[in-house]
Amino acid sequence: MADSTLQRSTAPGHELDELLIDAEADDDQVQHTPAPTQRSWLLLLGLVLVALNLRPALSSMAPLLGEVSRSLGLSASAAGLLTTLPVLCLGLFAPLAPRLARRFGAERVVLAILLTLALGIILRSLLGVAGLFAGSLLAGASIGVIGVLLPGIVKRDFPRHAGILMGVYTMALCLGAALAAGTTVPVSRYFDDSWAIGLGVWMLPALLAMLFWAPQARHGHGMHKVAYRVRGLWRDPLAWQVTLYMGLQSSLPYIVFGWLPSILIGRGLSPTEAGLVLSGSVIVQLLSSLGAPWVATRGKDQRLTIVVVMLATLAGLFGCLYAPLGGLWGWAVLLGLGQGGTFALALTLIVLRSKDAHVASNLSSMAQGVGYTLASMGPFAVGLVHDLTDGWAAVGWIFAAVGAGALVFGMKAGRALHVQAVSERV
């Protein structure tokens, strides 16, 4: 894709459409893919159901983390590791997805990995501490693989509607996270305060998604197998600035997923109330995840919008941590608006800083692989600081340090430049 093409495609739908092109996809094949058919919409239903399962394993643990820790005798550091492990797996296992798709077909891989996701969810409810950590690892690895494959399937089968449908995909992610955060504790209470049932029940949506996805695994045709090589990306400073912004901003929402309910419980809320606050904050992200890229692409660069959404995120975090509880919902809404915008902009920057779709795809792999690995350190650091200080006040320093780093690299990544990398057909 020429530079002028990227410059003309300023609407966020076009930008996400370019971002989500599969690294192995052949350009001519993608451009001539037919418009969605009735069977395509059945595929879309399956995609939405699968996407709904990519966050509950992360957000369902947070409201019950205190009960799980007390029941199994976990220290705050061990609990921090428990919240870190799935996020770390998002980065470590993501590179496996393209290899598995080339060998077995993307649809078949998604079906198989949905099963491992369900097994991971139920395993962490059984077998004590060992099952808890093993199940969290398996669930995180499963989410990492599926999360890489679904955007490529959307781009391949809905090339004319990929931007819009990825908005639906993003909303399904947020909805799954919000549902798990808000209903896990009530489910646990209904079953005699059984945290194991509260966590394990999220296996059922994964099995439902398998049921609707099975026809795709039988009839799917897999990813295209034309490979492109991108040279110079890992040596480019701008690529690292985009990657570090992705990783640092991602660290804050995973801290929120893992620890915000515990922080609020420590401030006097009940587990149910804390879960609802997290759920509400995540739902609000639906608005800014669609709106922030649209606003950001109306100026000459994205730096101002990056500053606004990051400051909103930090203000919401500090408000939830320190401000009077009477205004908690206002701070939670501000936090959701900020975090929805920071994540959406991180994806948009990957496209805007790339000269063509193949560079964008490889930059996406670099930013998510390295970025999520970096992001996983945030929840662990919060648990460690809480363990050392026996309180939550000092956690604000982590918020400040991560937020400041994200602002620095976001300002650099937000400049209207391209990474100096070259794509060539192998």
Automatic annotation (TrEMBL):
One of its GO terms (cellular component) is membrane. The keyword DNA-binding does not apply. SUPFAM superfamilies: MFS general substrate transporter. Keywords: Membrane, Transmembrane, Transmembrane helix. The chain crosses the membrane at residues 41-58, 78-97, 109-127, 133-150, 162-183, 195-217, 238-256, 276-297, 304-325, 331-352, 364-385, 391-410. It comes from the Bacteria. GO terms for molecular function: transmembrane transporter activity. PANTHER family: 2-NITROIMIDAZOLE TRANSPORTER (PTHR23523:SF2), PTHR23523. This is MFS transporter. It comes from Pseudomonas cremoricolorata.
